[in-house]
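Service request form, structural biology core

Requester: graduate student, group of Dr. S.
Request type: structure prediction, single chain
Budget code: on file
Notes: please return the result as structure tokens.

Sequence provided:
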Amino acid sequence: LLPMELQDKNDLIDRFNRREDSAFTTVYYECYPFVFHFVKKLTGGSPDTKDLVADVFERLLRYEGKFKSLGRVKVFLHVATRNVCLDYLKYLRVRKNRASEIVNSLNGNNENNPEAAFETAALRNLISKEIESLPHQCKLIFLLYYTQGLKNAEIASRLGVSEKTVSNQKAMARAKLKLRISKVNHGAAPF
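Core staff response, request fulfilled:
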């Protein structure tokens, strides 16, 4: 006969493998502190920690394999946490590099090239005007995403709209800005 605690853990894993909600909830509450602190450690205490933890548990929920023990679930969560955090840090690095490139191109050293300085100032002015001309909600979503770096879910929550609306509004804003800038780059009058 197995000790009661071991029987309970075996029962938990059996129920977890059958995708019972109550088993997932038990695993979630047992493993949440570990995942939370690991995410916090790997990301340096990111304000996105709770979202990243949710992403880790979402991966566990979507995993279609079976586990032999709670220890195997914890190993899965450890690896998933590491991968989610690495993806997040890579995303931040890309976003920072992209922002730096834009800032560098707009703030480039144009002292020796008055034409480039004029074009940069005109482009800045055009972008600002085009952003201001966007519909109110579209402009707000665009600015929250690109200037404050909020995720779609955060913007949706803040504005009381769906994530799909946020995604659609961002796409619309980008398309309008690209279209207007491409017209300028292809010889159309900027104003």
